[in-house]
Structure formats: C-alpha cells, structure tokens
Design goal:
By secondary structure, the protein is mainly α. Helices cover 72% and strands 2% of the residues. The protein has one domain. The two termini are 40 Å apart.
Length: 490
C-alpha cells in the first residue's frame, strides 16, 4: 500500500520535482563549469536552465491528472490549482528574464536558484488542504523571500529591509501557528474539509474567535494588509528590484489563494456577516475591517510618496484591500474574481518593477527623475503607461475588469447590498489611486528634463519581457474570458 502511495506522490509532484532539479542543476553548473566565466555568461546560462525547468513543469502540469488527491489532503489537485500553478511558473519565468541584466551580485546561481525554490514552495502551497503542509510551505517561501530581499550585500538598505522583513515575518508565523493550533485543538484535525465538519455546530466558540483573529493576523502580514503592512515599504525599497517585483507578484498570488482556501474551506460555519445593518461575528467582519483599513491607509499614504518603490509598496497595500473583497464574498464567484484580480495585478506589478529595474542604472528612484522618459525611451514609457493604468483600473486594461469582477462578487455576497458601503469605499479609493499614478505618468510623459540626456540602452531580453507583460495586461483586459473561463463559474 505504501508503495502505491509513494508512486502516486511521485506522479502528482513531477512538476515540482522538475523545478527543483533545475535549481540544483543551475547551482551545480554555476559552481563548476561556469565558475570562471563572465557574469553575463553565467547569468544567461543560469537563466536558460531555470526557464527550461519552469517550462518543463508547465508541460507536465498540462499532461497531469486534473483531479487527484493524497491521503490526509496533503496534496489536492484540481483544475483551479493547475491554473494557479501555471500562473506562478509564468511569473517565475518573467522574473528570471528580468534578472538577465542583474549586476548587484556575483552569486548568480544562488540567486536564481532561490527564485526557483520559492516557486516550488508556492506550488506546494496552492495544492494542499492540510494545515501542516500549508505552514511548512509558507515558511519555506518566507525564508526564500527573506534571503532574496537581503541579497545585495553591498547595500545597507537591502540588509535593513531583509532584517525588518524577517522580524515581522517571524512574528506573523507565531500568530499563524498559534491560530492553527487552536483550530486543531477545537476540531481534532489538520485537514481543511474535516475541520469544517467538526466546527459546523451552532454558536461560535470563544476560542474559535481567538483562532480566527490569530489566523487573520498571520495571513495579514503575509499579504501586506493594514495594519500588518509595516515591513512592506522598507522591503520594496531596499530589496533588489527583481526581488521586490517577485515579492509583489508571485507571493501575492500564492498567499491570497491559500488565505481564501483556509477561511472558506475550513471555517464556513464561522463566516459571520459584515453588512452595515446585518452584522454577526465571524471571520467576514474581521476581514471587512482589514480591507477597509488597507484601502484607506495604502492609497492615502501613497499620495505623499516621492520614491517610486515606496509608492508601489503603498499601492500594493491598497490593492490587498481590494483583493480581500474576493475572500469576503466567500463564493465560487468571489474566488474566481480574486484569482483573476491577483494574477492580472501580479503581471502589472512585476512589469512596473521591471521598468524601475531598467532605470536603476540611471539612478532613477524618485518621481521627478522620470522627467523626459518619453524622449529617452519611448517604448519603456509606453510599458509604464500600460502597467500603471492597469493598476489604477482604467479600461480596457486587465486591472479594470479585475476590479469590476471583484466588486460585483462582493455586492452579491450579502443580502440587501450589505457590503455596498465597502464597495463604494473601494471605488473612492480607486479614484484616489488614479491621482498618484497620474503623477508618475505626468513626470514620464509631460515634464521635460532639466538637461538633455542620451537615449536609454535597454537589454533586448528585458525589452521583450516588458512588452510581453504589457501585451498580456492588454490581452486580459480586452479578452478577460481567456482567463476567466479557466477559473470556474462566474
């Protein structure tokens, strides 16, 4: 029987194994065959091996079973998890391609391998319904991200950002583990479906209320939702640009997906209501408060920023508030809207950080430094326009439909439009976000530089990658059904 189970485990984890093997091969080649090669050659060779591993994993996912599971819900494969895993692999490939011009470190193999290890952790994270594996995968992911944040050893800012991220992340892990232990104590199980069955009785146990708050705090840190966001601005500003883009994109997809799975699958009897005149205790009103705080604090704080990275960090906090609406909806429609939103947000955010990484060699970090960008690099300015307008939710870009779908799902979640006030707040904060995004675009497209500067030289791989990301943002905005049809009922 154990042999059958191990063969089944091997069959279900071939995609993760492919990425892991690629990471180990990458390390081996970089430390042996490519040891004396130039940094450029090592980067290109390592990037080729890493991308080949991700493409092989995509191929294996497309030819794997669409429905399968292991005992104890350790691995649960569904069409939805396949879509999310393919999205994570695609984002990893884009991150690797944007790393082609990296110059901040000579440890190329280790840096690229960490991106792959983080991707493996996220693939396991979205394919399990077991609290133990959720926690292990989440911490494996977190450790990889801490190291990626502090990988620039020449930058004191990078080390400080990594330390803050590690301290806040460790504290959040304690909250999350405490909440999970209470859930296990009350239900006697670590499987999400069995937890739901054990906690389906009438009334809300006081210990379950504490568990809900602890789990919300733990995941709130992971997704950078207010008031648990304090690590995000420093981490986004101090981390290497590619690392910051990876944190802002891939980790958001995996973290929000598993956050939704935990509360919706394990705690359906403790959801409560968050309507303005229809309140009852549960995890929904807790997330309503966190969503409202995230939208208000993130968007208002972004207005005061002059650093592009910190602006994108506070913008991410605001977007976390919008994404929480998909979880608050606690329905298949809400989950589909959440995944569509977080994937399209990840594409735009990674693209925006890719543009900042291209400008990094010019010492551009403040909004006013973008003056004259449309003359020096018109293609780059167009990509920045597409990414920021999508983040602002301007049609016909993907960000507009992401907000439309998630707001619609939230309105349908409560009877008598109970969450109308929260959706109206989200719309108002979206209008605020348009203001600070337009400040950036005004500097790039309207303002003239104080002195004439030469045209920017952009690596061909970086240019193609940014155009691919911009093209996907436009495609998913003009044809949202391409992705929505893969995500289930709408």
């Amino acid at each position: 029987m154990s042999i059958v189970r191990y063969s089944e485990l091997l069959r279900l984890t071939w995609p993760e194994i492919a990425v892991t093997v690629a990471a180990l091969l990458l390390l081996a080649f970089d430390l042996t065959v490519l040891r004396r090669s130039t940094l450029k050659v090592r980067l290109r060779a390592g990037m080729a091996v890493a991308c080949a591993g991700c493409l092989a994993a995509m191929f294996l996912l497309n030819h794997a079973a669409q429905q399968a599971s292991l005992p104890d819900s350790m691995l649960v494969i569904t069409p939805l998890t396949h879509v999310v895993q393919i999205a994570l692999l695609a984002l990893a490939i884009f991150t690797l391609l944007l790393s082609a011009s990296t110059r901040f470190t000579g440890h190329v193999g280790e840096y690229l391998a960490l991106i792959l290890f983080a991707t493996v952790a996220m693939m396991f994270l979205v394919a399990t319904e077991n609290l133990l594996l959720i926690f292990v995968a989440l911490e494996f992911l977190s450790v990889s991200l801490y190291i990626l944040t502090g990988f620039d050893k020449q930058s004191r800012q990078s080390a400080e950002a990594a330390l803050k991220y590690f301290l806040f992340g460790g504290m959040s892990a304690g909250f999350l583990l405490f909440g999970m232990s209470l859930v296990y104590g009350l239900s006697g199980s670590i499987e999400l479906p069995r937890i739901a069955a054990a906690l389906s009785g009438p009334g809300l146990d006081p210990l379950l209320v504490v568990a809900i708050v602890m789990v919300a705090i733990g995941f709130g840190f992971k997704v950078a939702a207010a008031p648990f966001h304090l690590w995000a601005p420093d981490a986004y500003q101090g981390a290497p640009t590619v690392s910051a883009g990876f944190i802002a994109s891939s980790s958001k997809v995996a973290s929000f997906f598993i956050f939704a799975q935990v509360v919706v699958l394990a705690l359906p009897a403790a959801e409560g209501r968050g309507g303005f005149r229809n309140y009852s205790p549960g995890w929904v009103p807790v997330l309503v408060i966190v969503a409202a705080l995230s939208m208000v604090l993130g968007n208002l704080a972004a207005i005061a920023q002059t650093s592009l990275r910190r602006l994108l960090a506070y913008s991410a906090i605001g977007h976390a508030g919008y994404m929480l609406l998909g979880i608050i909806a606690h329905s298949p429609r809400g989950l589909s809207a959440l995944i569509y939103y977080v994937i399209t947000y990840a594409l735009a955010a990674l693209g925006a950080f890719g543009v900042l990484g291209t400008l990094e060699s010019e010492g551009i970090d403040h909004i006013q430094d973008l003056a004259g960008l449309y003359r020096r690099a018109p293609g780059l300015a167009v990509c920045l326009l597409i990414f920021l307008l999508s983040l602002a939710g301007i049609p016909p870009l993907a960000g507009f439909f992401g907000k439309f779908y998630i707001f619609s799902a939230a309105l349908a979640a409560e009877p008598h439009l109970g969450l109308l006030w929260l959706v109206l707040l989200a719309v108002a904060m979206s209008a605020v976000s348009l203001y600070y995004y337009l400040r950036v675009l005004k500097a790039a497209w309207v303002a003239d530089a104080a002195q004439e500067r030469p045209a920017l030289r952009i690596a061909p791989i970086t240019r193609v990658t940014l155009w691919l990301l911009a093209g996907l943002v436009v495609l998913l905005g003009c044809m949202p059904s391409v992705l929505l049809n893969l995500l289930g009922p709408w």
